[in-house]
Design a protein that fits this description.
With 321 residues, this protein is mainly alpha-helical. It has one domain. The chain is built from 12 helices and 4 strands; from the N terminus they run H-H-H-H-H-H-H-H-H-H-H-E-E-E-E-H. It is globular and about 50 Å long. This is Cobalamin biosynthesis protein CobD.
């Protein structure tokens, strides 16, 4: 049942996305979770506390911000599932945890902006999806940033929530989304969140382990089907470089994407004025272009459809067993 839920949620999000009218009317689950995280950050993360106290408060915050949305998801599941077409209703809710359409749209916007408005427009577009300083980026760096964001967010924003929907139903998907949102908001190594966000960052690393590996494999498989992509080099790059990334998870999709497209991604980057010296994924070209962004999108969509088909096949096998 949970695998079928993940499959249906993916189909709903592919077809409908999360309509802007709905965002204006009621907001979005990630925004609601973000409000809860901000509330806990304001009230539990006090500058007068020691690092140990902040770590303990961070653990308490993590339990609350995962537990509260998960409990709401459980209640929704119990209320909706017995209704006629109940699993469709739950899948509509579950689709809000996925970002296939919006991720592709935001990344495509970077390529379009570069083609139509040049570097300044490309910088503005890429600033919507990455945290690094856009003014520090030349055109190739803008393109690499968009492709890296596509790779990492394919894992965090699509494969991982689909995986946890398949494992734990709506409760699993919502719990994952809450943990991932917490990491994005308080999991950074800043003076304010170094201690308080420690639990959120480590928990997010843990729950993303299976999906990041699966994402890398999906991109390697997709490279077999996409003209011009190199599946053998994608696999070699994953084996050689993925474990060298500063993130225990981001290296898998970034290395697979870099190897498949013949690029060199990651490497030194500037975030908030601070240089982060990361290992390079891949040994291809650093001079990425808008056309490379579009090639990356083809690889993404192929990998995504392989995943959707995989969930559908597993659901069918389970139903027939």
């Amino acid at each position: 049942m949970f695998v079928l839920l993940a499959f249906l949620s993916l189909l709903v999000e592919l077809g409908l996305g999360y309509p802007d009218r709905l965002v204006r009317a009621i907001g979005h689950p990630v925004v609601w979770i973000g409000h809860l995280i901000s509330f806990l950050d304001r009230h539990l993360n006090r500058a007068t506390h020691s690092d140990i106290q902040r770590r303990i408060s961070g653990v308490v915050a993590l339990v609350v911000l995962v537990g509260v949305p998960a409990t709401i998801a459980l209640i929704l599941s119990l209320l909706l599932s017995p209704l006629p077409f109940g699993i469709i209703l739950v899948a509509i809710v579950g689709s809000s945890l996925l970002a296939q359409r919006s991720l592709a749209s935001h990344v495509k916007a970077v390529a379009d902006a570069l083609d139509q408005g040049g570097l300044a427009a490309g910088r503005r577009a890429v600033s919507m999806i990455v945290g690094r300083d856009p003014d520090q980026l030349d055109e190739a760096a803008v393109c690499r940033a968009a492709i890296e964001s596509l790779s990492e967010n394919f894992s965090d924003g699509i494969v991982a929530p689909a995986f946890w929907l398949g494992v734990g139903g709506l409760v699993g998907g919502v719990a994952y989304k809450a943990a991932n949102t917490a990491d994005s908001m308080i999991g950074h190594r800043t003076p304010r969140h170094e201690a308080f966000g420690w639990a959120a960052a480590r928990f997010d690393d843990l729950v993303n382990l299976p999906a990041s590996r699966l994402t890398g494999l999906l991109l390697v498989a997709a490279a077999v089907l996409v003209p011009g992509a190199d599946p053998a080099n994608a696999w070699r790059t994953v084996r050689r470089d993925a474990g060298k990334h500063r993130s225990p998870n981001a290296g898998w999709p970034e290395a697979a994407m870099a190897g498949a497209l013949g690029l060199a991604l990651a490497g030194p980057r500037v975030y908030g004025g601070v240089l982060v010296d990361d290992h390079t994924m891949g040994n291809g070209r650093r001079e990425a272009t808008a056309e490379d962004i579009r090639r990356a999108l083809k690889l993404f969509w192929t990998a995504d459809l392989i995943m959707v088909a995989g969930f559908g096949l597993i659901a069918a096998v389970v139903a027939l067993a």
